Amino acid sequence: MENYKKSKVVEKESPLPFTDLPSDIIEMKVKDGSKIRNLMGYAIAKMESDSVQQILFSGSGKAVSKAITCVEIMKRRQKGLHQVTKVFFKQTEEIWEPIVPTAGLDNLTVKRNVPAICVLLSKDQLDAQTPGYQAPGSFNAFWLETLKAESQGQMKRKRSGGRGAGGKTGKYPRSGGRGEFYKKS
């Protein structure tokens, strides 16, 4: 590949994984170079208006994590949003051209399957039986349960003493602490 340079990347258009979306839905196409601040400024302004009921975030490749971040910010700002997440692959084609055209090398086409995500957020109730559905507030219940389990685990560790198996040997034995070493006689 040292004799080639990438000339362009073509992303094949694939239909959205949601079939019954209204034609006027706001679709936020997140790219890896998108600024979250800009995306969220527009999306939050639209969702706060009464005319918009649903918004769709989509991203592929390196933009998947940025799309998820946008969704989580939106869910924290707008309480009570229903969510359906679909994960799939998009096909991209990379076209590589020879660095030296007179070398007799042909153009190369590399096809890649890139991970992609689409997340539908809705103020209205969505079908709870749909795979990838997340009810409003289910995020909070999960984290409350996790924090409770972690705090119980920490309490158990605190009760054990924390000084290892140890008796009173070591640099500073338990009985006197550091104070005994610094007393003037």
From TrEMBL:
A Gene Ontology cellular-component term: ribonuclease MRP complex
MF-aspect GO terms: RNA binding
Domain of life: Eukaryota
Locations listed in the record: Nucleus
Family: Belongs to the histone-like Alba family.
PANTHER family in alphabetical order: RIBONUCLEASE P PROTEIN SUBUNIT P25-LIKE PROTEIN, RIBONUCLEASE P SUBUNIT P25
Provenance organism: Sphenodon punctatus
Protein's GO biological process: tRNA 5'-leader removal
Name of the featured protein: Ribonuclease P/MRP subunit p25 like
Chain positions covered by the region annotation Disordered: 151-185
Keywords: Nucleus
Occurrences of domain DNA/RNA-binding protein Alba-like (ranges): 27-87
